[in-house]
Structure formats: C-alpha cells, structure tokens
Amino acid sequence: MNLHELTIHEAHDLLKKREISSVELTTAILDRIGQIDEKVDALLTVTDELAMVQAQKADELFKTGEVTPLTGIPAIIKDNMCTRGTRTTCSSKMLENFVPPYNATAVEKLKLQGIVMMGKSNMDEFGMGSSTENSAFYPTRNPWDRDRVPGGSSGGSAVSVASDETIFALGSDTGGSIRQPSGFCSVVGLKPTYGRVSRFGLVAFASSLEQIGPITKDVTDAALVLNAIAGHDEKDSTTVPHPVPDYTQSLIPDVKGLRLGIPREYFVEGMEEGVKQTIETAISKLEELGATVEETSLPSSKYALSVYYIIAPSEASANLARYNGVKYGFSFQEADSMWDAMEKTRQYGFGPEVKRRIMLGTYALSAGYYDAYYLKAQKVRTLIRQEFDQTFEKFDALITPTSPTVPFKIGEKMEDPMQMYLADVCTLPINIAGIPGICVPAGFVDGLPVGMQILAKSFAEETLLRIAYAYEQTTDWHKQNPPI
Amino acid sequence: MKLTDEEVKRIALLARLGISEDEVAKFRGQLSDILENFEILQEVDTSEVQPTSQVTGLRNVVKDDDVIPSLTQGEIMANAPQEEDGFFRIRAVL
Q1: CB contact under 8 A, A346 and B61
Q2: What is the ipTM of this complex?
Q3: Smallest Cβ distance to B17: which of A101, A358, A378?
Q4: What is the CATH number of domain A3-258+396-479?
Q5: All domains of chain B, ordered by start, with CATH?
Q6: DSSP string over A16-54
Q7: What distance in Å separates residue B3's CA from the closest CA in chain A?
Q8: How far is A344 from chain B (nearest CA, A)?
Q9: Which of A50, A238, A469, B60 allows an S-S link to A251, with CB 3.0 to 4.6 Å?
Q10: Catalytic residues of A
C-alpha cells in the first residue's frame, strides 16, 4: 500500500483503526514531495518541521479518541491564503517575504480539525491567470504531460493532489481557478456558492467573485473538506448565516428523477471534438443512471467573458492599491521621492499580467468610462444571474465541459492575453452568478484529462455532490495515476 | 477602442504604476484588443436593469462591538520594510 495515494476517508479509516499513524502518513507524503516536486514544481514552500509537529499532535488525539475526519490528514494550501508564521507569497515578488501574523479563517478551521499542513502551492500571481505560468517564481507542470500547463490559477494545488504530494488541497476560484486546473489534472474541484466559505485571510483579488474550496482525489473527500470550511464568519460580512448541512449525507449513488440541463452555449465554437465527445459520453452515463436530460440555452453567457474581464480587473485595481511598499511587501528603496518610490515598488513588484489587469481595471473605473464599462458590466451581470435563476426553475443541475480544450502547451498562450482568457469561458459565468460548481474527472483524450462541470442553484452544493458522486461510482477516471 | 500612448501613460499614473516605454507600446496594443472585445456588451439593452454589485442579498451586516484580543504592535510591524520607533517610515511627503 502506498500511503501517499490514500484519500482522506481511506486514510481516516486506517488512522482510526491505528493501522497507520499520522507521523507515518506525513513522512510518506514528505518522501513523495522529495521525489516528485522537482518534476512538477507544484509547491513554493514545504513546511516539513511544522508538519511533523502537527502529525505527532494528531497521533496523540487518536489515543484519546477526540478526532475529526480530517485529524492527522496532510494538506496543501494555495499560497494566497494567510498562514500564521508561514510565508504567503501569492506567487508574487511583491509578497515574496511576507509572513502573515494570522491565519485565514478556512486555514484556521482546518487547523481546528487537526490537519497537517505540508506546505503552500504555486499559483498564477495574485490568482490572475489560467495556467500557473504567471507565477513570479516558476511555472508548474502538468503531471499527465510535463510539457503542458496544469491550468490555473490554483495549478499548484491541483498538481499536488494529482501527483499524490498531499492527501488534499485548498484552492480559490475567482473565474474558474479551482475547477479549470482540477479538470486539467483529473482531480475533483469544488467552488462553493459565494458566501458559503469565509474569505477572511484570502489575499483579495476580486472580492465579489472569489471563493475558497477543496481540491481532492474523490467526491467524498470534497464533501468532508466542505463540511470543515463552510459556514458564517464574523470576520467576513459576505458569509451567509445559513446552517451548514452534513454534506456527506448527499453522497447517494442515485440520480433518478433529477432534471439535468445541457446549455448549448457551453459547447462553444472552437471546442475540441475529443472534449465534446467525452462530455457527451458522461452525460449519457448520467442518463443511464436515471436522470432526465434536456438541452437548454443560456444566451447571455456569451457576454460573461467581457463582464468578467471588466469586473474582476476593476475590483483588482482597487484591492491591489494597498501594495505601495509602506506596511509590508516589496519596497523600492532607491527612489527620489515618495511617489517615485510607490510607482517603482509597483513597477518592479508586480508581474506583467497583474499590471495588465490593474491598467484595465483602472481604465474601466476612470472618469468618463465608468458608465460605459463598469456600470454596464454590472447591469449585464444582473441579466446573467436572472437567466441562471430562471433555468434552475426547470432544472436541478446543468452539465457542461469545464474547459473547451485539454491542457495546452506551456508558453502557447503567453503572448496573447485574449486567448488565455478564453480558457475560462465555461467557468467564468458561474462566479458572475455566484452559484456553486464542481468539476469531476470525466475521461481522457490521448492521455490528457477532461473535466465535467456540474452547476446548481445557490446553496445547492448537496445536489452537485450527489450527481458527482453517482457519476464517480460508475467510472474509474479518478483512480488513474499520472505517468510520473 | 484604440488607446494612445498618452492614454496608457495616464492610466498608469492613475494606478501609480511605473511603466517603461516598452510596456507602454505593449499595453497599448493588448489593452486595445481587450477593450475591443468588450464592445459586444453595447448590443445588450440594459435601460431597465439594475446593476449587481453583490450576489448574497445580505444587507446592513452588523456585529456586536465586543472587545477581543488584537495583534500586537510587534506583529503588525514585523513585515514593515522600514520601521522607526514602532512607526512605518516613509519618504517625506512634501
């Protein structure tokens, strides 16, 4: 038995029976990281000493019996979530040496459950990108083909799970940053409803769009992690006070009678034929399992890309105004004046994509253009939301591809920002509407992963998990290992 | 929408972002392309539509004004690029 290949629930069973210890599991994961990470570059920081201390503590808890399903389980955290005492870089030169004095709420909740933090994962700088090539440090490689990207921005988290460098990971999703890399790496990724998980301590990029969520080896694990991180938080006034159900109760291998809609706009022009066929096969599988399937239409989806690339950069330009070299982060010291110091701090501290988005957002918010861009985008956002609301009166869930393509080659889209933005065309509308989405492995085209995206109305994560679980029970895509 | 060099420089100044001549040329082209894609939004009739700034529907969120422990001055200053006597040190403003 290879301990690093275990899921959360498999590892928990063995820990509970005392057949393995958390120290043994943690050691196995550290060995795996030592062997594999130089091939995929998923991690920025490995917290090995801290991990061993936490593992020993977890083993003590197993002796007393006061454990949770996550006690003693190794986890990787995306490097845009604050971890007290462990540097949190956002893959940016701006925060290269930033050590937060507090934990993000999602991290704190996992700590209270007794997880073992193994380290922090690589990402596109500040979450801006779809390939993890926009890291200021190094690109992460896709374990299924190391000449290809793992997706982004949570590419490091998705690769760490796919490569068994952890048992699970946290990612964050502003326009697809959990789901798209999960699809590209053949793992499970869940973006919760906006307001379901606290964003406190998540370094802000686009505050009205982003959510933290699990990246896991199977659907059961996604439910277990969501149980741990969901819920109201006084420190994030956008979290909702709704009670948190036990999401494992939704893991029923039955979709009989569920009404599934297939929105034709998500089978976009330019979509790869292999991806289309793979998703159609998966839809047939759900139909065989007893769901009813019907084509539907979300015509406003064609505006989502523009709406997103106005709203997200606008919010980013405001959120990233805080990086001025005064209180923390990179600070250019050889300047002539205060303004010169600030401008050069930002010039040398931010990478090209971050600058591009700050420029775009500043423009969209500037006098004379605000109504034409930002306000217009907010109004179209309303139409996109209403269209989803109406569609969910007829359907329990919608099924789409997660991406129109399989993972692309490293470097292929770096010189053409518009082409890179199109990589998220199937995932962006979901953040605009605030609804939840899950990506599950749905097969391979020439050895490269394809993800299926399932969408439901706000706070219907239970429906997503049920459909995803039922599908997973009839396939073995999630059990296949990349050739590394 | 085609941007000029002057507009690119003006946006950079608004954002307090230092920018090289090479970047001015690069951003002028790239941002113009991206803005051109946004023109599709003009075909949507939004005259009767309210804007969405948040999706939760929550309003006037308040909490009790309890005294709780906060970070120490030392913790706050630990990441300061330049510090003097517990203050953040910056260049003269005037």
Answers
A1: no
A2: 0.96
A3: A358
A4: 3.90.1300.10
A5: 1-44 (1.10.20.60)
A6: HTTSS-HHHHHHHHHHHHHHHHHHH--EEEE-HHHHHHH
A7: 11
A8: 5
A9: A469
A10: 78, 153, 177
